[in-house]
Amino acid sequence: MPRLLACALALLAASAAAIEPGAPLWRELGAGFGQQRADLVLPGQPLERQFRELLSGPPEAPVQLPGGLLLEAGCRLHSCDEKAAVISAGAGGRVLGIAARHFRCHAGSRGQTQCERAPTLSIWIVRHGRAAGREPEVTEALRAWGRAAGYRSEETRFVRSAVD
Prior knowledge:
Elements: H1 2-17, H2 24-31, E1 37-38, E2 45-46, H3 47-54, E3 63-64, E4 70-76, E5 79-88, E6 95-102, E7 105-107, E8 113-115, E9 120-127, H4 135-149, E10 153-160
Parallel strand pairs: 9-10
Antiparallel strand pairs: 1-2, 3-4, 4-5, 5-6, 6-9, 7-8
């Protein structure tokens, strides 16, 4: 009985503090580059689906960064070695960057998913016309978040916002 209660409390805590369905992250991913396909944790699936998976588990406490930036992060349910972070211009503000710490996965020869053993940090910097000067600080903040968890390789992409 205590184990069941602990599991129920953990699920309640995770669902209560997760990134809300209408949050700027989901609007940004749904409107634009989130439809691009990648091999983060689900081979060949859209980024939006991959980030929903990466943020399906327990969230971390939001971190207020210098300059009014907000970092929100969480991990994959039952696999907290795989995680994602989002930096926005304050609560409810525009998404300025997202990152994933993942073990690049692909479909194997027998249709089974095979993942690399060493983690990768993938960063997407979202370009907004008025926020272009913040790209270096957002990139560095996401790298620092990734370094705290550890990774072997890194890739950074720049994408235009579809919600401006």
